[in-house]
TrEMBL record:
Species this protein is from: Anhinga rufa (African darter)
Gene, per the UniProt record: Lmbr1l_0
Biological processes, Gene Ontology terms: receptor-mediated endocytosis; Wnt signaling pathway
Main location: membrane
Superkingdom in the source lineage: Eukaryota
Membrane topology: Multi-pass membrane protein
Pfam families associated with the record: LMBR1
This protein's GO CC annotations: endoplasmic reticulum membrane; plasma membrane
Name assigned to this protein: LMBRL protein
Entries under InterPro entries matching the protein: LIMR (IPR008075), LMBR1-like_membr_prot (IPR006876)
Amino acid sequence: ELRHRASPWQRNLGYPLAMLGLLALTGISVLIVCFHVLELLLDDAAMPRGIQDACLGQVSFSIFGSFGAALQVILIFYLMVSSVVGFYSSPLFTRLLPERQDTPLTKIIGNCVSLLVLSSALPVFSRTLGITRFDLLGDFGRFNWLGNFYIVFLYNMGFAGLTTLCLVKKVSWAVQAELIRAFGEDG
């Protein structure tokens, strides 16, 4: 129903651009994680430990300067939104989704706790994946497990592999459905 009410501009330009943007952000995040895996294999300094004696504004946290910092912010925001969407899309937590003007207090508290846990895990998540080296003033690099090469390596490989698998599955199924629809109408 929403697709039928959407304007032709929105259907023909807005949706494809949004989809290309999501594909680009997912692809960029997978590429960054793959480069981080290579860094982990070649250099011990790539481990997500805390940064010592790095004063804010004196040291660049991105090798691409301002563009890289802006890209990191966009990717962290994308990871935040996608983790919230993924959380509420999982079968276990769909009942926690708030309803308009009919949300009990216990469900509101559950949503607040869930969003607090997700937002607290985001800095560690983005640091472990190598998306940013910024410590976010929380000194998240002091966790002991962040110094364990095998945990960080497997975490990065799992993210890259599962994200690529989901991306290929979604894109290939969409292309397959469009081909079936196109050839089904002609035959």
